[in-house]
Design goal:
The complex is a heterotrimer of chains A (153), B (78) and C (673).
Chain A lengths: L6 H25 L7 H4 L5 H22 L6 H31 L15 H15 L4 E2 L5 E2 L4
Helix pairs in contact in A: 1-3, 1-5, 3-4, 4-5
Chain B lengths: L2 E3 L7 E8 L3 H9 L7 E7 L6 E5 L2 E5 L1 H4 L2 E6 L1
Chain C lengths: L2 E9 L5 H9 L3 E5 L6 E9 L2 E7 L11 H13 L3 E7 L3 H13 L4 E6 L1 H7 L2 E2 L1 H8 L3 E3 L8 H12 L13 H16 L8 H10 L2 H8 L4 H8 L4 H23 E2 L7 H9 L5 H18 L2 H21 L3 H19 L2 H17 L1 H14 L8 H6 L4 H6 L7 H10 L9 H12 L3 H25 L10 E4 L7 H35 L21 H13 L6 H10 L5 H9 L6 H12 L2 H13 L4 H11 L2 H29 L4
Parallel strand pairs in C: 1-4, 1-5, 5-6, 6-8
Antiparallel strand pairs in C: 2-3, 3-4, 7-9
Helix pairs in contact in C: 3-11, 5-11, 7-8, 7-10, 13-16, 14-15, 15-23, 16-23, 20-22, 21-22, 21-27, 21-28, 22-28, 23-29, 24-25, 25-26, 28-30, 29-30
Classes of the chains: A mainly alpha (153), B alpha+beta (78), C alpha/beta (673).
Chain lengths: 153, 78, 673
């Protein structure tokens, strides 16, 4: 069965891919000790490994875009896995944020002058994009214990 | 006859098993997993570092290192 | 009156056997080991229709040959313990290969009930299976189930109790060609005449002999009729027969499947689509590393508040105990010995629970097999399996959960090597030691020094693995034949049960060893040395030259002098066995600066130690005896004191040699002077 994916999927992959790659690079640049001037505004920590993960998510989306542009239908699987990964990372960052908050209540001495927004991360707000994505395509995922992609949905 | 060993088959090719050779323990296991003579096997892909290799047969996916794939004699089918 | 029966749960790996087991038994399960080996054995209980059932979860196997330990355990259990009913769980989306085990179970002549699991997935995939017809064909009850939702479990148990009162032995459902049947019959006659074989189903035994099953041939050799058996076997080529037996089993299955179901093939499934991404040539490894990072963050960063909570709670308990108990030595024993000891065991619980929750998610989703697929090339270079990678990475956080994580490695030898080298992965508790010493002696280069220590740990692990593979644990490489199961959404319930089981094992089994160790060290630090005038467990002598531990330290001094250490370091290292981070604290006490780390580093840098000795001490801390918690799990996971002691001796010897070379060679060459 031949059918090409619509511009919606491609636009989504392009947007999410560029955003994740860009924010990931910012993490890495900050992590190398170079001040981008955006750290405070966008809650970007200097974190090389975390930045690498975001770049990977961005690359997954962009590779999906590349394949779809080449007319490979299965390229859309990269978009779905990208969404899945970005949700996993949003969850991880949220848990760590919660953990820090809890820790600040347990050992307040170590957290003087700290506020919870210091652990707020781009991984969390970027995850919202994917949440929107999954909402939009939810009829294509059947989370019935196995990932079934319905063709043509 | 176009006899080859399974490790030489390029991804996205289908083959038919002719014979399993090799050491007893691995031979038995490979047969148990369904690579019996006559079985159709699709070569799916190699791992990112080139080894092991993924196959599809009897409706499921199996991976073998090249060293094990080498012991399976196959012929290419269209 | 209730009847008591035993049910064995058999099936291939990844067919949802565990979820069926959980659905039947709920939380009433007991996890232990099979006698003599470290393969896990789960037993659960359930009362159904007035029948008291004991359900034994057999290891997941593809076949019942002597290929692996798991298969031998499963088949010996069925033959020796004779369970009343065997329930085979079958993955409905993958009938053909699953039924291969069915053919062998039927040949064993057991009362069999088939749980056709994951029927919802088969339906979603577009397969159409007629259970009625299947039941007629096999003459065995077939019940469709959905383990993750608990559907069909009642029906399955009904079928089991019904089957119980039937007498049936249909060994002959599967027929082979004349050549095999003739030989099997001849062998059968011999076997039936020898009481030695009365124990075994003779048709099955004959077929196994013809297949050339090593384990079975060994058993036959012990009988008086072996010469006769050998004569029949020599008539044909075992290699040809072996292929024929497997082939004809599969042919019979195919014949049946054509009649009972309609399988939808040739379609890109969801699993294939996910696989295109996560095992992608370029992105596969980065994706894997990202997910590892996420798992690492959760296991260690997210665990911090819970560990602090435990720490504070036990600190408070110890303090309360010390003030409440009037007798000083008793207060010290309860406070510093026992409560602190229990605390040192429980402190790792958050790590263990979280890591196993994540490992369970990875295993149940099917990603674990892909991780092994991706990393196998690298790991095979040191003679290990792809699955060894995850425990080793987790070792950087804490060796204790990492060693427990080696349970995912099937091959016993691979698993043993992984357990033995995991302690060389520099865990988080060793970092404070590096930070203090590297900071005091290497100033701006501290970062490089610390990084090199981590790298040295990896190098030692890799070289040790290779060394063990080619010496004490020599043998053929295990063949790498691994299924890549379809992806599934893991269930929260399954993961939570898995996580809780691990936590329980840790607390129960490893906990006792750790406690004994911790209290032992407390005793050594509290008992006055012979000739000392101090009182037992008084603060004045605790851990000083006046105590036993101080005496031991001084006795050990000649051993550590070549490394540039004095007796204080020796004592600190003994304390370090309780937990590595204690090394810093006890050095502080011994050098008389209390817990002021800045003063300690000043004293050290001012000449208590040379930079070379400090470097040696860091390397020693990296490689020597791991902490008690770690020793406890090594013992628990290897099931052998021999291997545990081997690890301790091997690590400590390496530590000594490295520190010796660093100090002696460095001093001679005038390095870092």
């Amino acid at each position: 069965m031949k059918r090409s994916y619509g511009s919606k999927e491609m636009a989504f992959a392009a947007l999410a891919g560029v955003l994740y790659a860009f924010f990931g690079l910012l993490h890495i640049v900050e992590g190398l000790g170079i001040d981008t001037g955006m750290a405070g505004l966008l809650f970007i920590p200097g974190d090389i490994l975390g930045g690498f993960c975001l770049v990977v998510i961005g690359a997954v989306f962009l590779n999906g875009l590349r394949e779809m542009l080449q007319g490979i239908n299965a390229g859309v699987s990269f978009v779905y896995v990208g969404i899945l990964m970005s949700l996993i990372f949003a969850a991880v960052y949220l848990l760590i944020m919660g953990g820090n908050l809890l820790d600040s209540l347990i050992v307040p001495d170590d957290y003087e002058g700290w506020n919870v927004m210091e652990t707020f991360r781009p991984g969390i707000y970027l995850g919202l994009i994917s949440l929107f994505g999954i909402f939009h395509w939810k009829d294509k995922f059947s989370l019935n214990e196995v990932l079934v992609f319905r063709e043509g949905a | 006859m176009n006899e080859k060993t399974l490790d030489f088959i390029e991804p996205e090719t289908s083959v038919k098993v002719l014979k399993v050779t090799g050491r007893k323990s691995s031979r038995k296991r490979i047969l148990d997993m369904g690579l019996t003579p006559g079985t159709r096997v699709d070569v799916i892909k190699r791992a990112p570092l080139g080894d092991p290799v993924e196959f599809k047969l009897k409706g499921y996916n199996l991976s073998l290192r090249k060293k094990e794939a080498e012991t399976v004699l196959v012929e290419i089918v269209k | 009156m209730t009847e008591k029966i035993t049910i064995a749960l058999a099936g291939n790996p990844n067919v949802g056997k565990t979820s069926i087991f959980n659905s039947i038994t709920g939380s009433k399960q007991h996890v232990g080991n099979w006698p003599g080996v470290t393969v896990e054995r789960k037993i659960g209980k359930k009362v159904h229709n007035d029948v008291m059932m004991e359900i034994v979860d057999l290891p997941g196997t593809y076949s019942l040959t002597a290929y692996s330990l798991d298969e031998i355990i499963a088949r010996d259990f069925i033959i020796e313990e004779k369970p009343d009913v065997v329930v085979q769980v079958i993955d409905a989306t993958n009938l053909e290969r699953n039924m291969y085990l069915t053919t062998q179970l039927m040949e064993l002549g057991v009362r069999l009930v088939i749980a056709l699991n994951m029927t919802d997935l088969a339906l979603a995939k577009g397969d159409n299976i007629n259970e009625k017809k299947m039941q007629e064909f096999l003459e065995v009850p077939v019940i469709s189930t959905i383990g993750s939702k608990g559907t069909g479990i009642e029906g399955l148990l009904d079928a089991v109790t019904e089957e119980l009162h039937k007498t049936r032995v249909t060994e002959n459902v599967f027929n082979y060609d004349n050549q095999i049947e003739e030989r099997a019959e001849k062998l059968g006659v011999v076997l039936d005449s020898d009481p030695y074989f009365a124990h075994y189903p003779s048709r099955w035994f004959s077929l196994k002999l013809l297949e050339g099953d090593e384990n079975i041939i060994k058993k036959a050799k012990e009988s008086g009729s072996y010469p006769e058996i050998q004569k029949i076997l020599n008539e044909t080529d075992a290699e040809i027969l072996e292929a024929k037996v497997a082939d004809q089993r599969y042919k019979t299955i195919q014949t049946m499947l054509r009649q009972v179901c309609n399988i939808n093939t040739c379609r890109l499934t969801g699993s294939d689509m996910v696989d295109r991404v996560v095992t992608n040539k370029v992105l596969g490894i980065p994706i894997f590393l990202s997910l590892m990072w996420a798992a690492f963050e959760i296991t260690f960063t997210f665990a911090t508040p819970f560990m602090n909570m435990i720490d504070i709670f036990f600190g408070w308990m110890a303090e309360t105990a010390t003030t409440v108990i009037p007798v000083p030595w008793m207060a010290s024993l309860v406070g510093e010995g026992m409560i602190a000891g229990v605390g040192s065991v429980i402190i790792f619980l958050p790590n263990i629970l979280l890591l196993f929750f994540m490992i369970s998610l990875m295993e149940d989703s099917g990603y674990m097999a892909r991780a092994a697929f991706i990393m196998d090339k690298i790991m095979s270079k040191v003679g290990l399996h792809g699955k060894s990678f995850i425990p080793l990475v987790m070792g950087f956080g804490c060796n204790v959960p990492a060693i427990m994580a080696t349970r995912t490695i099937e091959d016993t030898r691979d698993r043993l090597i992984t357990i033995l080298i995991t302690p060389f992965m520099s865990c988080g508790a060793r970092l404070p030691v590096y930070v203090l010493l590297a900071g005091a002696f290497f100033g701006r280069d501290a970062g490089v020094v610390i990084f090199s220590l981590y790298a040295l740990g990896i190098l030692v692990a890799v070289v040790s693995a290779k060394l063990m593979r080619s010496t004490i644990l020599k043998g053929e490489d295990t063949p790498f034949i691994m299924e890549l199961p379809s992806y599934k959404i893991p269930t929260l319930r399954g993961s939570l049960i898995h996580m809780w089981e691990r936590g329980k094992i840790y607390l129960k089994k490893a906990g006792t060893i750790i406690l004994i160790g911790v209290v032992g060290v407390w005793l050594l630090a509290s008992i006055p040395a012979p000739g000392s005038s101090g009182t037992f467990a008084s603060e004045e002598i605790y851990g000083t030259t006046e105590s036993m531990i101080g005496m031991i330290g001084q006795a050990l001094e000649p051993l550590v002098t070549p490394l540039g250490f004095d007796w204080k370091i020796a004592v600190a290292l003994v304390f370090g066995v309780v937990a590595k981070e204690i090394v810093v604290g006890s050095m502080g006490v011994l050098y008389g600066v209390g817990d002021n780390e800045e003063n300690l580093s000043n004293i050290l840098a001012a000449g208590a130690m040379t930079p070379l000795a400090a470097l040696g001490l860091m390397v020693f801390t990296l490689l020597y005896v791991p902490c008690f918690a770690c020793i406890g799990v090594i013992k628990r996971e290897t099931g052998s004191w021999k291997w545990t002691l081997f690890q301790l001796a091997y690590g400590t010897t390496l530590a000594w040699v490295f520190a010796f070379v660093i100090y002696q060679v460095g001093t001679r060459m005038g390095l870092l002077a």
